[in-house]
Write a structure and sequence with these properties.
Keywords: Phosphoprotein. By secondary structure, the protein is mostly helical. It is 67% helix and 5% strand. The protein is globular, with a radius of gyration of 25 Å.
Length: 406
């Protein structure tokens, strides 16, 4: 397949100017005629991606403070700023196992370690473009919301031998699952695993079983996917969900801990680890998970008051009142723009009062003062009832039960 490099639009994301210039010069020498757009920060990259669609993105993994390359890929994919026809290549000077796992979990088309030679860059780009170029019509159909047309185009590609069959079948199965065509998703995956059972196909079969409430079959599929590819993290996450639904919390915790040990840069995974640890009263594990969740959420601006409250709770259960008070102060600073901050703040103060009886009356007076002006929002309502019961404030808890927020 001939790839017209001179027509491709490119975005280079790197916090070092010399590296941006070097990559731009390499692309020009390789036949990329269009001047690439450049971004020195993650936020600048996201702004450019929001305004323009690129054929190729070369993104450094480590961009200094804040968001990194994995964040950019995840956010851009979630917002639809990159699609199945976009080439995304992760570039980095790091080679630690945790960094590589975090980068690969997001699924870039290639991974390049610095220093980069022109020959290696060309090889990675050409290989990735040959995979993505046939997907251009499919991407256009999906942007228009026409999934049936996208599936038709994928079938035409399979019939004519255009494109990588593994990519086509995977996307077909994912689209079928996404649109609720479970029979088609199962059919595609069962056809694929006859030759070689890839982890993604086994995982989709597990998701199909999960949709049918066949938890036993779902568990089997997810475990098989983990055997085939131990570092396929989606299988770990789905398996933990199945085990949790079965009430097997310790088994679920073991699976999530294994997943976090392999790839810890997942906000949802850290939150699940924290919830499971708290349910099993493993406070040290819970504290570590909520601390990591908060740090992962900061650059994404996705910190929740609940994250801080859970961290405070675990810290208090470990008997560290002073440290819990510092976490409460951090929460107030971090959530200063949150309209519900006063509720998160009073909830945290009441948790501290459970372990510091001298502050109980003052904390309850503060709660009463807020309650005179408004009812608590839904996200803190049950938490307030629970902590009031721990403080033996049954009457206040019952009043809250009777005044449900809308």
């Amino acid at each position: 397949m001939h790839i017209a490099l001179d027509r491709k639009t490119v975005l280079i994301v790197d916090d070092f100017q010399n590296m941006r210039v070097q990559l731009a010069q390499m692309l020009e020498s390789l036949g990329f005629a269009r001047q690439p757009d450049l971004a020195s920060t993650a936020n600048e990259a996201l702004e450019r991606l929001q305004r323009r669609r690129y054929d190729v993105i070369l993104c450094d993994y480590n961009l200094g403070e804040g968001l990194h390359g994995q964040h950019i890929l995840d956010l851009a994919r979630r917002e639809g700023w990159i699609d199945v026809a976009t080439v995304f290549i992760m570039v980095t000077a790091e080679n630690s196992a945790e960094m590589v796992m975090g980068a690969l979990e997001s699924g870039p088309d290639a991974y390049l370690a610095k220093p980069i030679s022109k020959e290696l860059l060309r090889a990675r780009l050409v290989r990735a473009l040959r995979r993505r170029e046939p997907m251009v019509p499919v991407a256009q159909a999906l942007r228009q919301g026409d999934t049936s047309q996208a599936l038709h185009l994928l079938d035409m590609m399979l019939a004519t031998g255009r494109g990588e069959s593994a990519d086509i079948l995977r996307l077909k199965a994912e689209l079928a699952l996404e649109t609720g065509d479970l029979a088609l998703a199962r059919q595609v995956c069962e056809m694929v695993i006859r030759e070689r059972p890839p982890a993604w196909a086994l995982t989709i079969l597990g998701q199909v079983a999960l949709h049918h409430q066949d938890l036993s079959a779902a568990e089997t599929w997810f475990r098989e996917a983990m055997v085939v590819t131990p570092f396929f993290m989606a299988a770990h996450d789905h398996l933990a969900s199945v085990l949790e639904q079965q009430g097997r919390l310790q088994d679920a915790l073991d699976v999530v801990e294994q997943a976090v040990a392999r790839s810890w840069r997942s906000l949802s995974r850290q939150r699940r680890l924290g919830r499971l640890a708290m349910a099993l009263e493993e406070w040290e594990t819970g504290r570590g998970a909520w601390r990591q969740a908060i740090e992962l959420a900061r650059p994404l601006e996705e910190i929740r008051g609940e994250d801080f409250l859970n961290l405070i709770f675990c810290t208090l259960e470990l008997g560290e009142l002073a440290r819990a008070a510092k976490i409460l102060d951090d929460m107030r600073r971090s959530l200063s723009d949150d309209p519900a901050l006063r509720w998160w703040s009073i909830l945290g103060r009441l948790h501290l009062a459970v372990h510091d009886p001298d502050d109980k009356e003052a904390a309850l007076d503060a709660l009463d003062g807020i309650m005179l002006r408004a009812l608590p929002p839904i996200q803190v309502h049950q938490g307030l009832i629970a902590v009031l019961l721990r403080l033996n404030e049954v009457t206040r808890a019952e009043l809250l039960r009777q005044n449900l927020p809308t």
